[in-house]
Amino acid sequence: MSDQNKDQADFDPLAMWKEWQTASLSTWSKIMSETVSSEDFAQSMGQSLDDYLETTTPVRQQVEKAIEQYLQQMNMPSRQEVISIAERLTQLELRIDDMDAKMDDMLDLLKAIQTKLDKPES
Amino acid sequence: MPNSYTPDPADMAQTLTEALYDSFERNLQSARIISESNSIQVGQTPREVVWSLNKMKLYRYLPTEPVDPAKKKPVPLLLVYALINKPYIFDLRPNGSFIEYMVNEGFDVFLLDWGTPGLEDKNTRFDDYAVEYLPRAVRRMLKVADAKEFSMLGYCIGAALAVLYAAVYPQAPLRNLILLTAPLDFSNTDDNIFATWLDRRFFNVDRMVNSLGNVPSELIEFGAKMLKPVENFVGAYTTLYWDFIDDQESVANWQALQKWIHDGVPVAGEAFRQWVKEYIRGNELIKGEHIVKGQVVDLANIEANFLNVVAKYDHLVPPHQSTSVMDLISSEDKRLDIIPAGHVGLMAGRNARYKLWPKLAAWLEERSQ
Fold first, then answer.
1. Residue A82: closest CA among chain B residues belongs to which residue?
2. Shortest CB distance from A36 goes to which of B22, B132, B227?
3. Rounded Cα–Cα distance for residues B75 and B369 (Å)
4. Which domain holds residue A120?
5. Alpha-carbon distance B278 to B296, whole Å?
6. Do B184 and B322 touch, CB atoms closer than 8 A?
7. Annotated catalytic residue B156
8. Mind listing the pLDDT tens digit for each residue in A8-44?
9. How many domains is chain B partitioned into structurally?
10. Is position A121 within any domain?
């Protein structure tokens, strides 16, 4: 292949683009890694989260209160009441699981007794 | 005389047109692959639910191919994953699933799925998962498998839960304990971005939990991605674009992994509060100051055969968080393996089936007869 043909074959805009992109991403990665690991960044993240919660919490509480009042007027259970039922259901499930465990123990014990009884005395 | 090359404008125009066309095709293909990620099938190894409580489910997996009875291991294996993502990272795709691999190797594999907590679970503490719920799942597993002993593999925060369980219940018939990327020791804050973000000077965990109840999955996903923002927000897509867009198998793996990354679960508020205050800030577990049911949790209670796998390039759980536990446990048979992989790539990367899975299977096989 002549030099001219080789140069023509080497001209690959996609490869050049990929090379440029990889190099710039690598640079950006280093810059961003240093940024996010700094205490200044941690402080600004924490502050942003605090600001968000400070702004949205009262609004959300007001909306929840209004919905709760509406549901009460409509004679329907509120979210809190449904949550309370779900919590009680979980407690019931735990107790059933405890009973299940005790039943298993009892069955194992009965099986052991049965085995001993079935065993001819030597 | 030097050979000066003057490009032929017509050739250049043709090359540029082809490059533009190729780029356009790649963009279209990328857009299609990304948009279809959410609908890709994951967790396809056949399984049955053998126990459930609240949102939690215990699954038992069935082999996808005939297993030689001589190959079957009598000691069941329980997989415990973290609270912040779904556990199908263990079972991403057929031929790319750790669970499928282990089941076909003859292991009786169980997976404890913590489920998605609702507001009714906001008071569940971190310790409750290990001390209140895990023992119940273990009991059921032993019953179903008709086994006297078991092996447990904890991954990420699931490893911390497994360690807590093993330390609190030394009488449990735990024969083998495997930890993968276990976040246990938070004493070194130099290489720990999470610890910096969660420092009490910058982050008010009480305000967040009191206000939101549970910690939304989006917030956790955002935090995890911000640890390496360029790689996660841009790099993941440029890799697809340049490196394997025409390789169907790699594309399917990428889609499954992307689906998993974006498929997080909220964390119960009290569990998050306890994790941040007592485990990360207080480093109580490693310092021997953590109290459960009125008793100090002593890691020296752990006597099970112990394999601690650390990912060398883990940016979520840097290796130093996982290694110090080796000096605190009492296990006579203990081993630390450092594998050149990242946090997720360790279990679900292209090389996991060659680097990690056979290693785990071989280690367990020796200790599961």
1. B120
2. B227
3. 7
4. 78-122
5. 13
6. yes
7. yes
8. 556 788 888 888 988 999 999 999 989 999 999 999 9
9. 1
10. yes
